[in-house]
Amino acid sequence: MEMPSLKALQQLYTAEVLSASRGEQKNTEEVIGLLRLPAGTDADSRLAVYRDGYPSRIAESLQDTYPALFNILGQGSFRNLVRRYLGATDVRHYRLAEVGLDLPAYCIDDALTKDLGFLPDLALLEWRLLEAFHAHLESPVAPQSITALSAEQWETVRFDFQKACSVVESAWPVHDLWSARETPRDAIDLDLEDRPQSCLVFRRGDEVACERIPAGEAQLTRSLVEGSTLSDAVEALADQEEMATRIGPLFARWQQNGLITGFRV
């Protein structure tokens, strides 16, 4: 057999290792023919170490990324979800921590979501928490520079937030579900119907925070984080007058947590 190039060899071996996670059984003679085996061993059993080890390591990593999802589904259902996810997703990330990037979107159409409708939103919340943990923290803006804004400037100002700051809005009690990530499965007793919850995710130093916030505050914060002007964000609210009275305390809390890094008028 002619020896392939290093690139071709890497591609061939990668395809063989990934075959198990994609539900395939290749066992290609070409790969086996390239192996140099010690006496008394067979190629298939040695390749199985890598075929089985790869999806297992991915599952372990995703279990760390999605602890609430893992706790609610249990090991068997979670591993099956990961297997389906890997089989349907072209994973092209070089960092193990990024492998779960597309899992929240994948869960939308997964069979489990038919009975557990909260899965995509819970997965999204847990992914945002991981993103916050790895995000670079910038220096917060000086409070006096914001208080110096004129009334006219407040109408058109746009604020810059930490990359670690995000809002997750859900029709499900995602904060309660996430908070139960260390509760034994048979002890979890949550009312899921008609209990929408919104969460503010951010980081204080090395600690990632997940705070439940009211719906109006969540909508306002998300609009500002996404780059809306303050006036546009307020006008989009259903209860503008009620939220207008809370803007001052909100900004004070955001500044206390170092969430605002700059602004543009």
Short description:
This protein has helices at 6-18, 29-34, 43-65, 67-88, 103-107, 119-134, 143-147, 151-156, 174-179, 215-225, 230-235, 240-244, 247-256; strands at residues 158-161, 166-170, 197-204, 207-213, 260-264. It is mainly alpha-helical and 265 residues long.
Structural commentary:
The chain is mainly alpha-helical. The protein folds into 2 domains: 1-88, no CATH class; 133-265, Outer Surface Protein A, domain 3. It has 13 helices and 5 strands. It has helices at 6-18, 29-34, 43-65, 67-88, 103-107, 119-134, 143-147, 151-156, 174-179, 215-225, 230-235, 240-244, 247-256, and strands at residues 158-161, 166-170, 197-204, 207-213, 260-264. Strands 2-3-4 form a 3-stranded antiparallel sheet, with helices on both faces. The radius of gyration is 24 Å and the shape is elongated. The mean pLDDT is 87.
Helix share of residues?
40-55%
CATH class term of the largest domain: Alpha Beta
Any low-confidence stretches, pLDDT <50, length ≥5?
Answer: none
Class by SSE composition: mainly alpha
Can you name the CATH architecture of the largest domain?
Alpha-Beta Complex
Keywords:
13 helices; Outer Surface Protein A, domain 3; 3-stranded antiparallel sheet; two-stranded antiparallel sheet; single chain; elongated; mainly alpha; 265 residues
